[in-house]
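ok trying this again, last paste got cut off
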Amino acid sequence: MGALVIRGIRNFNLENRAEREISKMKPSVAPRHPSTNSLLREQISLYPEVKGEIARKDEKLLSFLKDVYVDSKDPVSSLQVKAAETCQEPKEFRLPKDHHFDMINIKSIPKGKISIVEALTLLNNHKLFPETWTAEKIMQEYQLEQKDVNSLLKYFVTFEVEIFPPEDKKAIRSK
């Protein structure tokens, strides 16, 4: 709604305003410095043909300019670019492992990626049984790349929750 009002105000009396601007006096050439005037007079007196050359129109150049044909095309709109981007190769997917965490929302996982639950599970398995859950086994089990698995095992760890008893009470030891 606001665009209609702005467009109406912008286009109001447009022709009269344009004609007024066109009919204004054109700006005159800036005055030359006095030292430049003397140099120009000296050069024109030495080379009088230059003054005629400046005022003369070059017919050959004008014919070249008339032969110039400019063919332009609008840039590709963003909608066409987005449409081209959406046409990608279909990715390979796999089903999530171990459905015991009630992962209702996750139907499939792209190959080379894992869910949060799977990441926590494999990190915990590797921490508890490092000789069984090696990087190679994790790579094969979850279809990941070797460098990703190595980085995951190197830089991520699961939390250990330890509850320390208050210092004034004795801890109950389990048998």
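PB: full thing came through this time. The two ends are 77 Å apart (CA to CA).
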